[in-house]
Amino acid sequence: MSTQTLPDVETRPEGTDHTGDDTPKMFHYVRKAKIAESAVMGTHVVALCGEVFPVTRSPKPGSPVCPECKKIYDNLPAGGE
Questions:
Q1: 65: closest CA among 29, 18, 21, 20?
Q2: DSSP alpha helix (H) spans, 7-76
Q3: Residues 5-64: pLDDT tens digits?
């Protein structure tokens, strides 16, 4: 298994895994630059964990975060380098 470092990674959680009431069960970390594009154009983003989905919701404080995304994010070097 090899590890890749994502270039220029500024991330924020974005939702997927929706419940029946259209509320995401969990949020994923994705590249900040891709969030607005996805929200406006409907393009898909790729989360740090590899999940692919269109941005449909913004996280609220205390929202659950994908454990795999969080682990990857916590191990990225500061400043995205």
A1: 29
A2: 32-41, 67-74
A3: 444 445 555 555 444 545 557 899 998 889 888 888 989 999 999 999 998 888 888 889
Token representation of residue 27: 């949020």
Q: What is the pTM of this model?
A: 0.63
Token output for 3: 């590890």
Q: How far is CA 23 from CA 3, 69, 73, in A?
A: 32, 19, 23
**β-bridge pairing 52-54 and 44-46:** antiparallel
Tokens at 55, concatenated: 């941005």
The SS3 call for residue 81 is coil
Q: What is the CA radius of gyration of the chain?
A: 12
Q: What is the pLDDT of residue 12?
A: 55
The pLDDT score that the predictor gives to residue 39 is 86
Using a 10 angstrom Cβ sphere, with 0-12 exposed, 13-18 middle and 19 or more buried, the burial of residue 4 is: exposed
Whether residue 13 contacts residue 63, with contact meaning beta carbons closer than 8 Å, is answered with yes
